[in-house]
Model the fold of this input.
Amino acid sequence: MIDAKQLDEENKELIRKYRKLLRYAKPFLKDDDSKMIRKAFNLSMEAHEGMRRKSGEPYIYHPLEVAQICVEEIGLGTTSIISALLHDVVEDTDYEVEDIQREFGKKVAQIIDGLTKISGVGANKDLAQSENFRKMLLTLSHDVRVILVKLADRLHNLRTLGSMPRHTQLKIASETIFLYAPLAHRLGLYAIKSEMEDLHLKYTHEEAYNSIIDNIKITKEVRDRFIRRFTRPLQQDLSLHNFKFNIKGRVKSIHSIWDKMQKQDIPVEEVFDLFAIRIIVDVPIAQEKAVCWQVYSIVTDFYKPNPDRLRDWVSTPKANGYESLHTTVMSRTGKWVEVQIRTQRMDDIAEKGYAAHWKYKDSNTKDSGLEQWISQVRDLLKEHDSGAMEFVDEFKSNLYQDEVFVFTPKGDLRTLQNGATTLDFAFDIHTQVGIKCLGAKVNQKLVPLNHVLQNGDQVEILTSVKQKPSEDWLRFVATSKARSGIKHGLKDEFKHVADDGKEIVLRKLKQLKIEHKTSTFTDLAKFFGLSQVTDFLYRVGKGIIAPKEIKKFKDASLKKKIDHKQKQWLDAKQVSKLITKETGRNDSILFIGQDLDLVDYKFASCCSPIPGDDVFGFVTISEGIKIHRTNCPNSAELLSKHGHRVLKAKWESDKNESFEVGLEIIGTDRVGLMNDVTRVISSDHKVNMKSITIDTDTGIFEGKIYLYIESKKSFRQLAEKLENVEGVVKVTRIKED
Done:
């Protein structure tokens, strides 16, 4: 029960938040904008009256905070503020999109419609999730602001994730790293992208996150002193040149530090570039390029640069609009330091991305790479007619990519994602050019369609009216536009072959006396590892899947009927209900080791969890329940795309059971080293080994040992003991692909 004092405090906080919103919006408000914002606020208040979030706060705080992020952190205007205030109204209350359009106009209604989840799309929740992603992404065709408001909504949900249950935290964090952080990156929203990645790390790898945070705090004083000494001569020289400038020492994001630790397999103390120096100069747009290089010259007068670490995104901006000069220089204390040089305009675009781009659009005569990308996405969305899940996968594959810069025969610059081939270039020119592409000349030399392009290549496409697209083309193109164009060209042949395949399958099903329902075809496709029925029928029609293989499907189906534990669960709720019914527990948690007689589960080979690991259960389509570690390489995709299949799981602490785990041991080779290692494993720790491989080269010893171990604690104890063996340098747990 909420008392009068708490209500009074909440009303005061509400007024404070609303006034703050208006204060930030004031510089660009015109005509009746403030009245329309007030009207939207009142409607949102009325619609969400009495509703509270999991944290206990009034629900109205959420749309207000989302609107605040839109205006303060992204730089959006009145339409987006109104949309943010109303973004949950249609989904959570009785208001319809038509009501919004009548009160606030077509633009706001379109954005709200794009933000509203689809209801009633059937029982397939994997498809429902993908359809909602697809619906949101399709709004890029007419208004990118729906994506920007959604990113603000997601960011606030992440900031308040602490009050949510563990499985919800994992689902939302994984969705974020899977799609929303890459989207923020592609739209140039660096600050939001970095915070999303950091918060994902906080909720999926809490121990690593806290370790990095602690290290940053401990080293702050030393770091600040180093930055002051490093920047002092630069400030003096820049002042002598009468530049209007600002120098910042910026700590790298927690996620980027963690990423470097993973890639280089080093502790946080060994990450040498924890921070970067950023020099921001305020100059007219016509002088930007010359001044950035002048500042670079001043920096390298004092500090010697690493020639391999110069990045010029001023002359050729990234596809998301990012512009900056990056160099790494040697400080006087022997440390490498990254220095970023940019103008105030470039810094605004780097932090606020697409919204800041519009602020400078009239004064910026250069073509925006971001605009080109949005245009390409719109073309892709218009052409794309594949299933929702395939659509999301293809869209995502184009988000987090490095770029390659190539030229047409006339010298026009075109930006493609890294790994693009001459065929990708052809489709980038035009879909019809791609379909008729016969080959290409790169730097005047004849090359095949699968030739991978390099920075600076000049490409001339050769076409023929007789050329037709081939299915093999899909294997070596990197861009969604090319894949979509090839599939479109193959569609007629694909349909014809799939129809032949269907006739073959029907005859075989009749012969095997299997009822041919729609679900039978779906089950067959899943059995052969395919998500689309048409892909299965096409492979049968092409002879890739022989008709006799269908008998294996019948045998597997019979086996499932024999073993009741191998039933095809549709989602985690079914499993939770069974556990609650059979055990009387209301926690819906699968206790590993205790509940094996109720449901069948296996340990995922991709991450090989052992007791003590933070885990979750995943309800597969045909292989029962798989237990994954929360930091499994596949967890982000599983949790984000198939959240309804995720089951809360914990280890039964006193269960005496062994689990397979891989160890990698690196050291300096010596006589008797292997004997000492195996003695520690077999004698001291009484652990059974499954397999062992050894490789020695120029005095370096590398061994991979697979063994059976009881818990994460046992693993740590064994690793510590092995590291004390003379000659052993490092012991790590093998991460499976």
Summary: Confidence is low (pLDDT under 50) at residues 118-124, 363-367, 561-566. DSSP finds 28 helices and 20 strands in the chain. The first strand starts at residue 245 and ends at 251. The chain has five domains: 4-204, 212-359, 370-487, 566-651, 659-733.
